[in-house]
TrEMBL record:
Alphabetized UniProt keyword annotations: Membrane, Transmembrane, Transmembrane helix
Keyword rRNA-binding assigned: no
Family from the record: Belongs to the multi antimicrobial extrusion (MATE) (TC 2.A.66.1) family.
Protein name as annotated: Protein DETOXIFICATION
InterPro entries, sorted: MATE_fam (IPR002528)
UniProt xrefs under Pfam families: MatE
PANTHER family xref list: MULTIDRUG RESISTANCE PROTEIN (PTHR11206)
Species of the source: Triticum urartu
Gene Ontology MF terms in the entry: antiporter activity; xenobiotic transmembrane transporter activity
Domain of life according to the entry: Eukaryota
Protein's UniProt keywords contain Membrane: yes
TM stretches of this protein: 61-84, 104-122
Length: 160
């Protein structure tokens, strides 16, 4: 029989109780650090969820328009801004405390990203017609529908 390699030996060895305790001791500080990030992500998603739930009670057509506004505005900008979580964490760990510069640069980039979003929203009706959508969906396009306008204002003030 062949002798098992090191990885197989580690897998085949019985796990002792002290190993479980060591894992728990290691997991506690990690969970303490990751907790606020997880909570922030859940609250960010809850903002979008509650808005869409309220519009969903008004009808399917308005729900489609609100979802379009959330997809093209809020989701894109939140995704771009969430890169600061990683960037600032790495900078802080490397003791480069220029976090204010990162925030300012991110705000400028997000403001520049609002320009094409606003242009797309201004031409949403024509774009949807070119894509072969029904004219009834144009009522709920991000710059047309009354109920989707508050959602577009929520998406970091990119509304036109």
């Amino acid at each position: 029989m062949q002798k098992p390699n090191l990885d197989e030996q580690l897998l085949l060895e019985p796990v002792e109780r002290s190993d479980h305790v060591a894992v728990l001791e290691e997991a506690k500080p990690l969970l303490r650090l990751a907790g606020p990030l997880a909570e922030g992500g859940i609250l960010r998603s809850a903002l979008q969820l509650v808005s869409v739930m309220f519009v969903g009670h008004l009808g399917e057509l308005l729900l489609a328009g609100a979802s379009l506004a959330n997809l093209t505005g809020l989701s894109l900008l939140v995704g771009m801004s969430s890169s600061l979580d990683t960037l600032c964490g790495q900078a802080f760990g490397a003791r480069q405390y220029h976090l204010g510069f990162y925030k300012q640069r991110a705000m400028v980039l997000l403001a520049l990203a609002c320009v094409p979003i606003a242009l797309v929203w201004a031409r949403t009706a024509k774009i949807l017609l070119l894509l072969g959508q029904d004219e009834t969906i144009l009522i709920s396009a991000p710059t047309r529908g009354g109920s989707s306008r508050p959602l577009s204002r929520t998406s970091l003030s990119c509304a036109t």
